[in-house]
Specification:
single chain, 191 residues, 0% strand, elongated
């Protein structure tokens, strides 16, 4: 059921879909949906969990990146995330998730736990590996992961979900290169 409603939950919309609309999308009655999920918030939380369980597309990218130099690995990872940032994948999970969860005491933590943190943990692990191998200097992997993922996520939401490309276009590939090179200025191992 969750997989049937997830696209509706994560699609850009002027208003959040009602529980009745979600029941229609799942091809079940409103009572059936309430029976299984109790509330709209519980259904949205299950959708976030499904996004996490189906696997973050970048898990494979992280493994590939780890085998490269930090610069080439970060470029590979971030450009891979850019490619996955479309409405039915990473972009939808983030934009729809933010739309659903901003300001919600229940959904905010669920979004962080099941959508943001899995991505951050993977990036942290990559950075810690490079630090342990002496290929990068990362005293705080969590902060470093946020330094990388935060600007990229905002740039992609700006350009794609908010249609910022019509207001002020951004060359995303060049942005990624600038982001990686700037990050490495503070974290590269001195030669």
């Amino acid at each position: 059921m969750v997989e049937k409603v997830r696209p509706l939950l994560l699609a850009p919309a002027d208003e959040k879909p009602s529980l009745r609309q979600l029941a229609t999308a799942a091809d079940v009655s409103l009572n059936t949906l309430r029976h299984y999920f109790g509330s709209r918030e519980e259904l949205v939380t299950e959708a976030f969990q499904a996004a996490e369980e189906e696997g973050w597309d970048a898990f494979e990218l992280v493994g590939e990146a780890a085998e490269k130099s930090p610069r080439e690995g970060l470029l590979h990872l971030l450009l891979g995330l850019v490619s996955a940032w479309h409405p039915d994948d990473l972009g939808g999970d983030h934009a729809g998730g933010l739309q659903e969860s901003l300001g919600s005491e229940q959904l905010g933590p669920a979004f962080v736990r099941h959508v943001l943190e899995p991505a951050l943990v993977q990036i942290e692990g990559l950075l810690m590996r490079w630090d342990a191998e002496g290929r990068l200097r990362v005293p705080d992997a969590r902060a470093a992961a946020l330094m990388i993922y935060g600007p990229l996520s905002l740039a992609l939401i700006h350009q794609r979900q908010l249609h910022g490309h019509a207001v002020r276009p951004l060359n995303v590939d060049r942005f990624v290169t600038t982001l990686v090179d700037g990050f490495l200025v503070g974290h590269a191992v001195d030669a």
